[in-house]
Specification:
Chain lengths: ~250, ~550
């Protein structure tokens, strides 16, 4: 396994006007790591992932993925990344099989290989209604298909924004098993999720971002300190206990 | 509640406008000034004509026909342009405790946005009549505005009802395209029958009576004209006003009835059966034809476009309209042109093909990422240069453009219109060259003014007004080189000159397409965040065209 980290982010900033969505972010995610990236709503998680994928240009700072600088070697990097973004990247008027084959070919797989992998992924993710258009898929099915699409070209780095959202327990279990298997083979996973139990069970390392800044980072054991749950740590770090009792009319 | 809905819509649009920047807002303003300037000019012309004291007889003859024309434009223009205008997005509003009559009122108000130009025209005519002593002058201050307001209200409510009815009909599987075709044929059939000679004498007689029929004060347009003119022949103005009020009441009941039915209609259920992609080995082979000549990933993207567009109801409707509407609109001219040999009849196929090219803009190249919505991010995430994605979309659009021409040519052959193979080849060539210019413009508008488009709804969530404005303004410019070729043929009466000018136009087209592509790629790189934000954004409580 190469020495360079899977993700090396240095002093990354993203400004929208005067407001910093991401502020002086520094991250080093080692290869083969299952990395959890946590934060409350609007903390800058999705913006960070969008910068890592090249969808959003940073205002300043540098990004290196798999030892290659972004955006200088953008196409090479994209070739080796698997993505499950927060917003749908599925084309509604294709069937699941057609979409997976399309994605495979976009990543340079020959058509027969792309088709074969598409069929096996559809079977694996139990998306067996092969003639059904994606427009008719449920939310969970869409997430499973997005996950399948991220796997088809066998990437080295996965960037996943809320991959388990809307997925039923069986589907989520399958996805977790697949992800763990990917880590075992040496792939790196960078994942955001609001389901802290899942993060606690899967991730080796965690960073918590709040108001665009990293407020905690470390291994799972370091963060929990042996006594707290991840949820306790998270709530304590980002602040909680909003006083809804003050709203008299709500009582 | 109505104010809350309108405010929410205004805020949604304001956010969108801020995001699109000052340049976009300025362009929107220029398009609006040009469009409404044109209609204001027409309104002034109408005012001058109706104010002319010496034209009393002509005004009495022409005003009812003019009102019939206004009625026809008001009701049919949305069909001809394949855009239905703004409407309420009921899926977002039905959850709130808003009285349905309030929703209907907002829907009616929205209709005004689609016909402001006609209100200008009617106002111009009304002012002219008030200035004309031959029709009572300012003594008609109550009568003329009353007729205009009632006629406008009648049209507004009828248009709202028809819009709801048509949208429901067009959302049903299978019958969508047939209904669209039927609606168009119904509009053109009388003219077609007359020109083709089927029942010629009878139809010719009927058409000769179009003016007296339009003037019949028991039709809404006749009653409106009668009331505006203050005529005493046949019925008194007050009776004409009562007739018009009755028509307006009927239109209100119809509009309200259709709106209520629309509230209960399940669009998703109506379209559910459309969604299944059935196993069609023949279609599958067709989709894969590009792989014979194109390498991956370009081919994969072209195939994806072909599959997606064929399964998109809105695209299918516009595609069917592209050849059918053009055909029936221009067909009478070609039939009459057998005698008169006009420029249009001589180049009928090319004219219809160019019309189809323009119509396809809104669902293909004018807003290339529109149907993809947020999924367009895949083009930026995959290891593919963005020019390939644009090129793939252009190739797919070109395939449909040529299919459209083939459909027109086949229809002409079936109708035995005497279209030669040379004319068919010429239509392909001319449209192909014009397409180079329009695809270039379309690429620029796709990255500078992207907007998500609803694939499921036949109307609503169309391409951005600015996109349509760009194409509307630049369409004549894009056709200029081709037009020059025809002009050269006419001037020199020589085919060689025609093809020489076409060759120059093609060379220039390639250069312009190339430059536009480079510019579009550069804009796509620098604006990728804005593009994806635009394509992912939701609408307000109204669906705007």
């Amino acid at each position: 396994m190469p020495d360079t980290p899977a993700i090396a982010v240095h002093d990354l900033r993203k400004l929208y006007g005067d407001k910093a969505a991401v502020d002086s972010l520094n991250l080093n995610v080692p290869r083969g790591c299952f990395f959890g990236f946590l934060g409350p709503n609007g903390a800058g998680k999705s913006t960070t992932i969008r910068m890592l994928t090249g969808l959003v240009p940073p205002s300043s700072g540098s990004i290196e993925l798999l030892g290659m600088p972004l955006p200088d070697r953008e196409l090479e990097i994209k070739q080796r990344i698997g993505l499950v973004p927060d917003e749908s990247l599925l084309f509604d008027r294709l069937t699941g099989a057609e979409f997976l084959e399309f994605v495979g070919r976009m990543y340079g797989l020959p058509r027969p290989v792309a088709r074969e992998r598409a069929q096996s992924l559809l079977d694996l993710f139990e998306l067996r209604e092969k003639r059904k258009l994606i427009a008719e898929y449920s939310k969970g099915m869409r997430k499973r298909l997005a996950m399948a699409a991220s796997l088809i070209h066998h990437p080295d780095l996965f960037l996943m924004d809320e991959p388990f959202e809307g997925v039923d327990a069986v589907g989520a279990r399958l996805m977790k098993d697949i992800l763990l298997d990917q880590v075992r083979r040496g792939a790196t996973i960078f994942l955001t999720s609001h389901v802290l139990e899942v993060v606690e069970r899967l991730c080796d390392r965690v960073a918590i971002i709040d108001k665009g800044k990293i407020v905690r980072e470390g291994s799972m054991d370091e963060l929990r300190g042996g006594t707290e749950s991840l949820e306790d740590v998270f709530v304590r770090v980002v602040g909680a206990g909003r006083e809804f009792h003050e709203l008299e009319w709500l009582k | 509640m109505i104010r809350a809905i309108l405010r929410a819509q205004w805020l949604s649009m304001r956010i969108f406008r801020l995001a699109s920047g000052r340049r976009g807002a300025m362009f929107s303003a220029i398009v609006a000034v040009l469009w409404y300037g044109f209609w204001t000019f027409l309104a002034v012309v109408a005012e001058e004509l109706t104010a002319a004291r010496g034209l009393r007889a002509q005004i009495e003859t022409w005003l009812p026909a003019g009102m019939l024309g206004v009625f026809a434009y008001w009701q049919l223009a949305p069909l001809a342009s394949a855009t239905m205008g703004a409407s309420l997005d009921l899926r977002k509003l039905l959850v709130y405790p808003v009285p349905r009559r309030s929703l209907f009122l907002v829907e009616i108000l929205l209709r005004i946005a689609t016909c402001a130009e006609l209100l200008l025209l009617l106002t111009g005519a009304a002012i002219g009549l008030l200035r004309n002593p031959a029709f009572g002058g300012w003594r008609g201050l109550a009568r003329v505005p009353l007729a205009v307001v009632l006629f406008a209200a009648f049209n507004l409510m009828l248009a709202a009802g028809l819009r709801n009815l048509i949208e429901r009909l067009l959302s049903r599987k299978g019958i969508r395209e047939a209904i669209a075709l039927l609606l168009m044929l119904v509009g053109v059939l009388p003219r077609l029958l007359m020109v083709t000679g089927f029942g010629g004498a009878l139809w010719a007689r009927r058409m000769q009576h179009v003016f007296p029929t339009a003037a019949n004060p028991f039709w809404p347009w006749g009653a409106a004209a009668h009331c505006m003119l203050g005529l005493s022949t046949g019925v008194r103005p007050v009776t004409a006003a009562a007739v018009l009020a009755a028509w307006t009441a009927a239109a209100y009941l119809f509009g309200r009835w259709q709106f209520m039915r629309g509230l209960r209609f399940d669009f998703q259920a109506a379209q559910a059966t459309v969604a299944s992609a059935k196993a069609r080995p023949f279609a599958e082979r067709l989709y894969r034809l590009p792989s014979l000549v194109l390498p991956d990933p370009l081919c994969a993207m072209v195939e994806k476009e072909l599959r997606s567009l064929v399964r998109t109801p809105r695209f299918r409707l516009v595609f069917v309209m592209g050849f059918s509407f053009g055909l029936v609109v221009w067909l009478p001219m070609i039939l009459r042109g057998r005698v008169t040999h006009s420029a249009v009849s001589g180049n009928f196929l090319a004219v219809v093909s160019l019309y189809a090219l323009f119509l396809l803009a809104q669902v293909t190249y004018g807003n290339a990422f529109g149907f993809d919505g947020s999924a367009a991010q895949l083009y930026f995430l995959a290891p593919v240069a963005i020019w390939r994605a644009l090129a793939a979309k252009n190739i797919a659009a070109a395939i449909f453009i040529f299919l459209e021409i083939a459909a027109v040519a086949a229809a002409c052959t079936l109708l035995r219109l005497g279209i030669s193979s040379g004319q068919i080849g010429e239509a392909f060539l001319v449209t192909g060259i014009a397409a180079l210019y329009l695809l270039g413009i379309g690429n620029l508008s796709s990255v500078n003014y992207p907007r998500p488009m609803s694939a499921q709804r036949v109307s609503g969530g169309g391409s951005a007004g600015r996109t349509q404005g760009v194409l509307f303004l630049l369409y004549p410019v894009a056709l200029l080189p081709v037009f020059l070729a025809y002009l050269a043929r006419y001037a020199f009466d020589n085919q060689a000159v025609f093809y020489a000018v076409l060759a120059c136009a093609a060379a220039l087209g390639v250069a312009i397409y190339w430059m536009a592509m480079e510019s579009a790629v550069s804009a796509a790189r620098s604006r990728r965040e804005a593009i994806l934000a635009e394509l992912s954004r939701g609408e307000g409580p109204m669906l705007a065209e």
